[in-house]
Each structure stands twice: as structure tokens, then as C-alpha cells.
Amino acid sequence: MKKFLVILSCCALFLQCKKVKENFLIKGDWVVEACYMNGGSINLMNNALPYFEEGEGRYQSKFYKDGLCLGQYYTHDTLNYEVLGNWEFRKKKVYMKMDVYINGEFDFQKSGKREYTLFSDSNYIDLYDMGYVSLLVKIKKL
To answer: What's the rounded Cα separation, in Å, for the pair 73 and 59?
Structure first.
């Protein structure tokens, strides 16, 4: 009986940890601060999105319980671009597929008080048939 309770407690703890990770992701809005490809030092957000570098652009992401995610790009407080995607936890990683830029499993770690770093060594970019690249994304919880 004691073994059964120990095993049950371990399973409950594991499921609770997964739930905590899911709640951390879906509770609140996130803003993407930077994105670097293949170990480069150039923030791709500056090149891909108008007005981002000047501080007038903001890319926000929202994650929902049903596995959907929403990306929105604002410039001067006006919504310019919106895309739906999918996400799910897979073991210790989060899988995301959004638009032609994000399609991979990402490791994540806390890098500041409200900041996280996501990394994938195998993210598929469909744009211009770029294929698989490593991608580092810095996000901040609003």
C-alpha cells in the first residue's frame, strides 16, 4: 500500500509540474524582444518588421489552453499583422508552429525577472525555402 501511495504521489507531482509550465505559458501576454538565427548577432525582428528597431513596433504572443496561439504585430499602437498557430508541451520542451517563421521544439529557461529565452536547434523556416535553422528567441511577459 505504501508503494502505491509513493507512486501515486510521484505521478501527481509530475503532472502538477507540467500544469505549472502550461500555466506559466498561457497566463498573460508575451512580447518578443529579439530573435537570432544560427548563432548570429543581428536581431531578425529589426529586419523583418517595419518600425521594430525604432521602438515603435511590438510583436505580442498569446497562448490559449486549447493549443492555439496568436501572434500580433503592432506599430504605433495599430494592429498590422495577425497570425494563428499551434503549441503544445512535449516532454521538457514546447512545440510551436506559427506562420512561416516558427516550426520547432523549443527549450526554455528563465533569463530575468519576467524574461525567458527559447532555443531550438531545429526550427523550420518555410520562407524562401530556408529550411532548418537554429533559432534563439527572447520573450518578456507583460
So the answer is: 4
Query: Are the C-beta atoms of residues 122 and 38 closer than 8 Å to each other?
Result: no
Q: What own/partner pairs with CB < 8 Å and gap ≥ 24 does 85-89 have?
A: 87/25, 87/63, 89/18, 89/21, 89/22
- Has residue 66 got a pLDDT over 80? yes
Q: In this structure, what C-alpha cell is assigned to residue 74? A: 503592432
- In the chain, DSSP assigns E strands to 29-37, 57-63, 68-75, 78-90, 93-98, 102-110, 115-125, 131-141
Question: CB under 8 Å to 14, separation ≥6 — which residues?
Answer: none
Q: What is the mean pLDDT of residues 101-110?
A: 91
Give pTM, 2 decimals.
0.79
134, 118 Cβ separation under 8 angstroms: no
Query: pLDDT (tens digit, 9 = 90+) per residue, 11-59?
Result: 343 444 444 455 556 667 899 999 999 989 999 888 888 888 888 899 9
Q: Report the alpha-carbon distance of residue 78 to residue 94 in Å, rounded.
A: 29
**3-class DSSP assignment, residue 2:** helix
Question: Under the phi-then-psi rule, with left for phi > 0, alpha for psi from -120 to 50, and beta for the rest, what region is 26?
Answer: alpha
